[in-house]
Specification:
With about 50 residues, the protein is mainly alpha-helical. The protein is built from one helix and no strands. The chain is rod-shaped. The mean pLDDT is about 80.
């Protein structure tokens, strides 16, 4: 029982880390696109 709990907990940690990395990469891509739009529109700094 205890070993099963440890396995589930480890899977949850990996899943949470994967979700965090996915969210972070999406935010980076969004920031990059936003800054490119701002630059092409004539502003020299991204939106905050």
């Amino acid at each position: 029982m205890a070993s099963e709990f440890a396995t589930v907990r480890k899977r949850w940690q990996v899943f949470s880390l994967f979700g965090f990395l996915t969210t972070a990469s999406q935010k980076i891509n969004t920031d990059k696109i936003t800054s490119e739009i701002a630059w092409s529109a004539g502003w020299n700094r991204p939106f905050l």
